[in-house]
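One record is kept unedited as follows:
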Amino acid sequence: MREALGNREERMKRKILSFALTTVILALVCLAEGQPQAKIPRVGFLDPGHPGPGVAFRQGLSDLGYMDGRNIIIEWRSWEGRPDWAPESIAELVRLKVNVLVVPGSRIVGIAKRATTTIPIIMVAGGDPVSSGLVASFSKPGGNITGLTVQHPELSGKSLELLKETVPRLSRVAVLQEAGGDPGASREMEVAARALRLKLQTLEVRGPTELDTAFQAATKGRAEALHVRETAMLSSHIERIATFSVKSRLPALGQLRPSTEAGLLMSYGPDLSDLFKRSATYVDKILKGSKPADLPVERPKKFELIINLKTAKQIGLTIPPNVLARADKVIR
């Protein structure tokens, strides 16, 4: 009898314990369901059309603990060097109400600025944002734009010096640039050209359809070298520019490594991958509450000289040893 009673008491204790555990679990589930779920932030990334920037940006986010599809969603849009596609791509990202926009180049940043005054815009590889009216100052941008510029006070001068050292008898340089570009950089280049006794021929294009006209003008102007002031649009068509320079036997200098890899004779300028990787730190700060108005615009920290000896051979040019010795990479 006592044994039966003990069994009944044991079964009763188990039922009570089971009921209590079930009640606690249900309460926790209800509590969790009642709490608002953390919204995964969305970042709009306007890709200029070649893989390097996107890879570097993704790596920068990964280093900061962000994984696309897990704790962040990246809305990739590629305009493939066609400026006329950029406005619609940006408008679409604005309609999606992304938390941040990452945009390459000053001209495209200007389009983004006109599209939204509330979504933070991170500029990458743009020109002087102050002279172009994108920000109030480097230290206090104001508004909704900040980021990284390729602008550096000594860049234009050093680029022309490299061309002069490579082609000692150089006197006429055609400068290929996108219309409406950085006026500050143009002034710096003019000053450097006068010091080196070089005559500049400016070739402005508004899009890829005007490249052939620019090439014809360079030939007619008897250019002895070509300086490409790269924007996202021009970089996207650099192979076409390289083909012209080789066919015309023109030593051509760009600003970014991919340009030399695509066939230009040389490039001197910021490490593009480093800039896009660093842009991830701006995304991180903004998602954590910082305002773009308070985040200083940063200049490039890493510069590199790349020389393509294959192209040198094609145009019949011997690179002087003192220039070759300074190269960070030589393509053979």
